Amino acid sequence: MTTPSDPGRNLLSGPPPTLLPSDAIATDALAAGEAPAAVAAASPALSAPWAALAELALAGDRPVEAYAYARTGYHRGLDALRRAGWRGNGPIPWSHEPNRGFLRSLAALGRAAAAIGETEEATRCRTFLTDSDPAAARELGFDAS
User: Fold this and answer.
1) pTM of the model
2) Helices (H) and strands (E) in the chain, counts
3) d(CA 41, CA 36)
4) Which of 57, 41, 36, 49 is nearest to 102 (CA)?
């Protein structure tokens, strides 16, 4: 069974991948060496700077701070995913670079949750990441099996 608007897409195959719009304004600034806090302040709706802040906090053994940053990036990403047509499930491919800020935030949230003893949330994050894209889970250091 195919859809009339996309005759090659099988309705039984699940939702199509969600592709977020460009976040180059933030990722380019981060790549140029701008401070993640400044990038987050300039582009607070984008996940990438929040993910960078969370990863820095995790690397600095500041899990509560990392949790706050990662949760912000995660929720900003959920908002963006919903605006892009995501309905709570379906692929969020790592190969699409604008999705990476959200996926990195999700991974950081899982790590921070584990570090502060939020085991159930850490498990939910790991499952969500793997369900979104097993390649993201592997790329971000989570076993996708």
Assistant:
1) 0.90
2) 7, 0
3) 8
4) 49
